[in-house]
Amino acid sequence: MLHYDFMQRAFFAGGLIALVASVLGVYLMLRRQALMADMLSHVSLAGVAAGALLKFNPSLSGFGVALLGAVVVEYVRRSYKTYSEVSIAIIMIGGLSTAVVLMSMNSGISRSFSSYLFGSVVAVQNTEIYLVAAVACIGALFFYVLRKPLYLITFDEETARTNGVPVNLISLLFSLVTGMIVAAAMPIVGVLLVSSLIVLPAALAIRLAPGFTAALWLAMLIGLTGVFSGLTASYEFSTPPGGTIALTLLLFLVAGIGVKKLVIKWRKQHSKLRRKVGASGQNKLLEHAGISQEPPVIH
Question: Regarding the domain delimited by 5-197, which CATH topology (the fold level of the hierarchy) does it fall under?
Answer without folding.
Answer: ABC transporter involved in vitamin B12 uptake, BtuC (1.10.3470)
